[in-house]
Amino acid sequence: MPRTRSLATLAALVLLAAGLAPGAAAASCTYLSAVGGGTSVSKTIQLNGPLVFPFGRTNFNTDFSVNRAFSSYKVNFKSTSTQRGPYPIQAYLKFSDGTNLQVVNETLDAQPGQFRQFGPFYPPAGKLVTQVNVKVGSGYNANATGFSYTISVFGCR
Length: 157
Known about the structure:
By secondary structure, the chain is mainly beta. It contains 1 helix and 10 strands, in the order αββββββββββ. The chain starts with 6 loop residues before the first helix and ends with a strand.
């Protein structure tokens, strides 16, 4: 005879599978502001050129300001290219004491229009996050040159 489960038991299992305790509310998330303005940033990956290389300036890094304490952070990525491409992605939580913690380090082989959310990432106890840095692109992966994307970051309570 098959077992039957109550609706309350099934709801609790769904919440546990989603990483929430029964009775817990979903996290409330807020877009963080990018340094320079806006809550999302769209870019095209560019490698160092002959004039850029000596100065070490690329468009790989984007910082997002943290203006209050959050319990976790999520990085949102969307490919805006028309072809499948490699996206070397790194993300860091930067702390008030000048240290940082790398939370993402991978190359995403994204389809056109593909969305991916990284996280949630939790800061270590006693650390105050002041910025979230997202780096898309790498001087070591020329195949990523020319691919476009949009990124944003959530702070969640």
